[in-house]
Amino acid sequence: MSEDEQKEKALQWLREAVGDDSADFHEGQWEAIDALANRRQRIVVVQRTGWGKSSVYFIATRLLREQHDRGPTLIISPLLALMRNQVEAAAKLGIRSATLNSTNPKEWENITADILQNKVVCSFLILSPTRTECCKDDDQSQ
């Protein structure tokens, strides 16, 4: 697939994600996606809230998954509300995601085992850096 074809496909996904058939990439968005997905470069994107950073890694990951069947992208997200928004936005693009955070400690072991055994069930693993394990009754001391 040519770069122009990839860009057009990526633009269609962006429009699906935002629900606007006339949406276009912000300045620098396609360049970041292209650098990640096609040139395999490491990048840093520093932009204001709402600029579309999540769209950059969602679309880049989708391109990588389609072209090379790569494993999940790891996203470190400090806010549970942001994690929920990212899961919803990814779902609009048909992208499955999983989270490891303080609200789902019972799922951590299964999610981790699936990844380590290369049984990837998602394109995104969204990890909270401040997650805490729930205490078990027998582990608590008075």
List the helices and strands and how they pair.
Layout: H1 3-18, H2 29-37, H3 53-68, E1 73-76, H4 80-92, E2 97-100, H5 105-116, E3 124-127
Parallel strand pairs: 1-3, 2-3
Helix pairs in contact: 1-3, 2-3
Please explain how this structure is put together:
The structure is a single chain. This protein has 142 residues and is mainly alpha-helical. The protein folds into 2 domains: 1-70; 71-142, no CATH class. 46% of the residues lie in helices and 8% in strands. The chain has 5 helices and 3 strands. It has helices spanning 3-18, 29-37, 53-68, 80-92, 105-116; strands at residues 73-76, 97-100, 124-127. A 3-stranded parallel β-sheet has the order 1-3-2. Helix 5 links the parallel strand 2 (97-100) and strand 3.
The class by helix and strand makeup works out as: mainly alpha
Taken as a percent bin, the fraction of beta residues is: 5-15%
Q: Ends: how far apart?
A: 63 Å
Largest sheet: 3 strands, parallel
What is the helix content?
40-55%
Number of helices: 5
Q: Give the strand order of the largest sheet, numbering strands 1, 2, ... along the chain.
A: 1-3-2
Low-confidence stretches: 134-142
Strand runs, count: 3
H/E topology pattern: HHHEHEHE
Radius of gyration: 17 Å
Q: In one word, what is the shape?
A: globular
Count of all domains = 2
| Mean pLDDT level | 83
